[in-house]
Design goal:
This protein has 425 residues and is an all-alpha fold. It has 3 domains: 36 residues; 107 residues, no CATH class; 221 residues, MetI-like fold. Helix content is 70%, strand content 1%. It has a two-stranded antiparallel ribbon. A hairpin with a 5-residue loop joins strand 1 and strand 2. Helix 1 packs antiparallel against helix 20, helix 10 runs antiparallel to helix 17 and helix 14 runs antiparallel to helix 17. The longest helix has 51 residues. It starts with 12 loop residues before the first helix and ends with a helix. The relative contact order is 0.08. Its main location: membrane. This is ABC transporter permease. It is found in: Cell membrane.
């Protein structure tokens, strides 16, 4: 009988060889993983530098509110305990003058004036007037707070109005939800609560709905046009299919601006399409196809159609044609066999193509801007407007975050349905 405290027997030669082989395989697998990681590091660094970091900066700018906090630190401190219902204390008037007089140049005052003017119209002239006075008449450090208040009110009585002070107090923090709230037609009250925008100011909800409507129409049009074309290509011999696929890919090799300019020539009242319709006596007068939603949808469908055809074609090539023939041989009609047997096997291509076209559509800017009217502009147009014209980076970033959130939500919904389909299959 073996002693319980004795050492276990040494492994046999076969066990030792198996253990050595397992360790060698583990080391080889570790080397392979490290080599794969080293090979992907340049791509990961590139994605972080050009994708993750810009998106992070965008999201941060959507909640950043530096203009007032940076320009009026003393005023923010003086208004910290203010009830926002009565006139601020004279110390707040003195703090405004002190902050404005400490600004190095008028550019900082201009940035502050633009930010406050977006909250309360008239703030630009109020702030710039006080800035100029702070460099001259109000710069005397011997003035008491009550004297500064009296001189400010004598210079511009609007300094006694509460909305201007409420705007300063509301934006005194460096971080704010105001831009994100405005992107969904909400705003903060003077007391800090959240409320809906007035009816005449609720614009972004309608713009987002319009963006989704146009994108859905373009997606469905691409599906209706692309599905039969992809099916036809999948039934052709490889040589003919490759030649025709080159024609499908031609739009990829042409600039979007060139294609849009071509559609302007085709769709105008004296364009080729209207002339052809008039010549064939299909219409009695030229159709309005340009600078409206019709032109936008036609051009976007033409540009995005290859993104629908390629996923459909790749899936259809993997579907055996014998399935439909077997269904027909068992008594089904060709149409019923196609709808009940063939189409369900292409759901993956339909979902991928529809998602790709829809996501690309909601971010379109150039085509609606050149071919659409005022009521056909999508959300990207207003992002560009805030960036290039209004120079309101916070609002542009908030709308961009809204667009990004919508895209991620749609992708999440698609992934959920795809997993559900796989589990049922």
């Amino acid at each position: 009988m073996q002693d319980l405290g004795s050492a276990p027997p040494p492994p046999s030669a076969a066990e030792a060889q198996a253990l050595t082989l397992a360790k060698a395989l583990s080391r080889a697998e570790g080397r392979r993983k490290r080599q794969a990681l080293l090979l992907t590091l340049p791509l990961l660094a590139f994605l972080v530098a050009v994708f993750i970091v810009p998106i992070g900066a965008l999201l941060m700018r959507a909640v950043e509110n530096p203009e007032v906090a940076r320009a009026l630190p003393r005023t923010a401190q003086a208004l910290a305990g203010w009830d926002r219902q009565s006139e601020p204390a004279p110390a707040a008037f003195a703090a405004v003058v002190a902050d404005l007089s400490a600004m190095p140049d008028s550019a900082d005052a201009g940035a502050l004036a633009r930010r406050l003017n977006s909250e309360v119209p008239g703030s630009r002239s109020l702030v710039m007037g006080a800035y100029r006075a702070s460099q001259d008449a109000l710069r005397d450090p011997a003035l008491k707070a009550e004297d500064v208040r009296a001189r400010l009110l004598a210079m511009d009585p609007r300094w006694a109005a509460l909305p201007y002070w409420q705007a300063i107090a509301k934006n005194a923090s460096r971080w704010t939800p105001d831009y994100l709230l405005a992107a969904v037609d909400l705003r903060r009250e003077a007391e800090g609560g959240i409320e809906r925008m007035p009816e005449d100011q609720r614009v972004f909800g309608r713009i987002l709905l319009r963006t989704f409507q146009i994108s859905v129409v373009v997606m469905l049009t691409c599906l209706l046009l692309g599905y039969p074309l992809a099916y036809w290509l999948s039934t052709l011999p490889a040589r003919k299919a490759n030649v025709l696929m080159i024609l499908v890919l031609v739009p990829f090799w042409t600039s979007i601006l060139v294609r849009v300019a071509a559609w302007i020539v085709l769709l105008q009242r004296e364009g080729l399409i209207n002339k052809a319709l008039l010549g064939l006596h299909v219409v009695a007068e030229p159709l309005a196809l340009l600078f409206n939603r019709t032109g936008v949808i036609i051009a976007m469908t033409h540009i995005l159609l290859p993104f629908m055809i390629l996923p459909l074609y790749s899936v259809m090539k993997s579907v055996p044609p014998t399935y439909v023939r077997a269904a027909v041989s068992l008594g089904s009609t060709p149409l019923a066999a196609f709808v009940r047997v063939y189409v369900p096997q292409t759901y993956a291509g339909i979902g991928a193509g529809a998602l790709l076209v829809f996501i690309l559509s909601i971010g379109y800017y150039v085509t609606p801007a050149l071919l659409g009217g005022a009521d056909d502009q999508m959300l990207s147009y207003y992002i560009a407007q805030y960036t290039n014209v209004d120079v309101n980076w916070g609002m542009a970033a908030a709308l961009g975050a809204l667009l990004l959130g919508s895209t991620l939500a749609l992708y999440g919904v698609y992934r959920r349905f795809a997993r559900a389909e796989l589990s049922l299959g």
